[in-house]
C-alpha cells in the first residue's frame, strides 16, 4: 500500500486509495496537522546512574589518585571518604555526558508533539524547541549543522506521518508519493530545488520508507480534479499554499488519464502575507518606524520559520530603547512569544478575509495591550503577493494563448475571497471551480500513488 503525502509549509496531510476510494489519514480528530513540531527538553534522571565496569574503572582511578595526593600532602583520608568524593565526580561527569549526547530518534519521536498541540505544549512548558514550517528552509544555503537539523526535523515529521498511517491502516507503510512545489523557496537559485529534494528523500528513507517518489503539487491537484470531472476539457489548476504558488495546464476529465502540459510556480504564498501584515500592522507596537532599532530586527522577530533569524533576534539587547518599545521588544524575546505573536497575525489574516476589523489581545507582551487591524491593512499587506500572483497568471495566460474551459483553485490560501477574485480576473473566459482548499493536493497524491 502506497501513501500520498502533502508535506506542506503550513499544514501536512496524507491519504491512501483503498478499493478505489481515497481514504484520508486521521491525525487525532483532523485530516491534517499544522507542520509544527515541539521537542521538549528531555532531562536525564540522576537516579538512572549505575556503575558499569567502565565507570568502576574510572572510580578506582580517581580514588587511587586522590589517595596519592592526600599522602603527598600529609593528610589522612578514609577510603570511604575518598570513594564518596570520587563517586560524586563520576556521577557528575556521567550526567554531563548524558546531556551532551544526542537523543535517539526513538526518544525524540516519543516526546515530540505535532500540529496545534505543539504550540500549546510549547507555550505551557515554556522551554524546549519549537520548529514551524521546516519546508520553507529546505532550499536555502544551509550550514552543515543547520542542514542536519532541518533534515532531522523533516525525518521526524515524515516518521510521524508514516507511523500514524500504519496504525490506522493496520499494515506497515513503506512507500509513498510525496508532493513538491514547482519552485522551492531558495536562496541559491535552481540548486535549492535539488538540495530540497535531496534532503526530503534522505529524510523519508531515515523515516522508514523503503522508496519514495515526487510529484509536483499542481499536477497532483490536476489528478484530483480529473477524478471528479466526467467530461474531458482543458483546465488550469492553481494551487495557492502557505509557502508556494503553483500552476499547471492540463487536459482532464473523461475516461483517459489526465495530461499535464506544463507547470509554473513561484516561491511565494500565504506566509508572505503573514510577514507583511506582521511588519506593517503589529511591529509598530514594538517601535518599527518609530525608534532607531534596525529594521532587520523586526524581520527576525516576525520570521518564526527561520531558526537562525529567531536566534539572532533573541541575542539583541533593548535596554537603551525608550519605553514602551524597549520593554515590549524584550518581552517579545521571551520563550514562545514570537510564536504567540505569529499565531495572532495568522488569526488576523484569516478573520479579515470576511470581517471589516480584527482585535488582537497581546497580554503576553504587556498587560492590557490591544491591537485593532482593519481590512485595509490586510489589503496593503497582501499587495506585494497579489502583484506576483497576477504576474504569474498573466504569464500562464500568455504561454497557453487562450482561456481554458475551467480554472480549478485549491490550496489553503484559496479560501481568501480577494485571491479567488484575482484568479477569476486573470481568466475572464473560464469557469472558476473552487476545490477543497485543504485536500485537493493530497487526494491527487493518493491517486497518483495508487497508479
TrEMBL record:
Keywords: ATP-binding, Nucleotide-binding. The keyword Nucleotide-binding applies. The keyword Lipid biosynthesis does not apply. Gene3D superfamilies: 3.30.420.40, Actin, Chain A, domain 4. GO terms for molecular function: ATP binding; ATP-dependent protein folding chaperone. Coiled coil: none annotated. InterPro entries: ATPase_NBD, Hsp_70_fam. PANTHER family: HEAT SHOCK PROTEIN 70KDA (PTHR19375). This is Chaperone protein. It comes from Stenotrophomonas rhizophila. The lineage of its organism: Bacteria, Pseudomonadati, Pseudomonadota, Gammaproteobacteria, Lysobacterales.
